[in-house]
Amino acid sequence: MADQPVTPVKKRSRRFYYMDILNIIATIAVMWLHTSEFAFQYTPGSPRWVLSLVIQIAFIWAVPIFFMISGANLFNYRERYDTKTFFKKRWAKVLIPFIFWTFVWYAWNHFVGHNPDWSLIGFWNGLEYDTIQPIFWFFYFIIPIYLAVPFLSLIATKANQKVVEYIIALYVIGVGVINYAYTLFHRAPDQLVNNIPMVLSTGIGIFFVGWYLHNFNISKRMRHLLYGASVLGFVIMFSLTIIFSAWRHETVRDAYSIFTIGGFLMPLGVWAWAKTHFPLDWQPGPKTTVWLKRLSGVSLGVYVIHEFVIAVLEKLLHLDQSSYYHMLALPMVVWVISVAIVLGLQKIPGVNRLLP
C-alpha cells in the first residue's frame, strides 16, 4: 500500500518587533504629513511655508514603510496558511473597514461639510473614483496588490534573489526616474513606457524592497549607504520642489511624491535604522511587548479617523494651517487622541471589526 501524502506543517507566525516600531513611527509620520498641508499654499517668502515643506518631504517615507511592511509580512504567507485563508484575513482587515469608513466620510461630508450630494449613486461614484476622502488612495493602491500577492509570493523567495533585485532595479529606473521625469515635465508617457505596466504603473518595487531588506542581512557598509540614500532622497525632492514651484508659481507636489527616486530612497534608511537597532531576535520586556502590539495594532484605525480629529481640533481651537502650533504640536496631539479613540472602540464587540 502506497504511503499517504503528508500535509505540510505550517510555520507558526513569528513576530518581528522592529516592524511594530516601524508601524508606529510611520503612523506618527502620517500625522505630521496631514498637519503640514500649508505647504500646498505656495508662499515662497514665508518661513512657515518652508517649514511646512520641509516637514512634508521629511516624512514622505510614511506610506512606503507601510507598503514595505506588507511586502515583508505577506510575500511569505504560504509558510503560515493557504491562499484562501490569506484572502479571508486581508478582506476582513482592509476591505470591510474601507467600505464602512468611506461611507462614514461620505455622511460627514454631507451633514458636516454641507456637500449636497447624498444618494446611493453619489456614494457609489465617490467610492469608485476616490472622491470622498482623498487619503483613502492608500486602499485603492494596496487592494490590487493583495490580489497579486499569490503569484508575487512565488517570485519572492531567497532562491530568486537576483530576480527580485532585477524587479527592484527596473522599478527604480521606470518609476523613480522615467515616470518621475515625465510627471515633472507634464509629458504623457510614451508607448514603450505604457506597455511595461508591472514595474511602471504600480508601486510593486516598494513591496519587494521591504521583503528584500527583511530577509537579507544589512551590513554596516550597506546601512551607511542606505542612510546616505535617505539624505540624498530628501535633498533631491526638496531641491526639485523649490525649483519647479518657483517655475510654476505653485507648490509642485509631484516633485516629492512617493513614486519618485527620492520617495523610494528615503524609507530605506528608516528601515535599516529600525532593523539594526531592534534586530530580528530582539525580545522586548512583557510590558513593552504589550504596548508595541497595541500601538502597532491601531495604525489602520488611526489612519481612517485622524482627519476627523484634525477637523474638530481646528474648529475648537481656531487653528490656522499656517500656525507653528498646527505644524509642530498638533501632530502628536492628534496621534494621542486618535490612538485613545481607536483603543476604546476596539473593545466594543462588532465595532472592533471596523477598526482591526
From TrEMBL:
Major subcellular location class: membrane
Localization annotation: Cell membrane
GO biological process: enterobacterial common antigen biosynthetic process
Annotated TM spans: 16-34, 49-70, 91-108, 135-156, 163-182, 194-213, 225-249, 255-274, 295-313, 325-345
Keyword terms: Cell membrane, Membrane, Transmembrane, Transmembrane helix
One of the record's GO molecular function terms: O-acetyltransferase activity
One annotated Gene Ontology cellular component of this protein: plasma membrane
Domain of life: Bacteria
Record has Cell membrane as a keyword: yes
Pfam annotation, one family: Acyl_transf_3
Membrane topology, from the record: Multi-pass membrane protein
Acyltransferase domain ranges (all copies): 17-343
Keyword Transmembrane: yes
Family: Belongs to the acyltransferase 3 family.
This protein's name: Fucose 4-O-acetylase
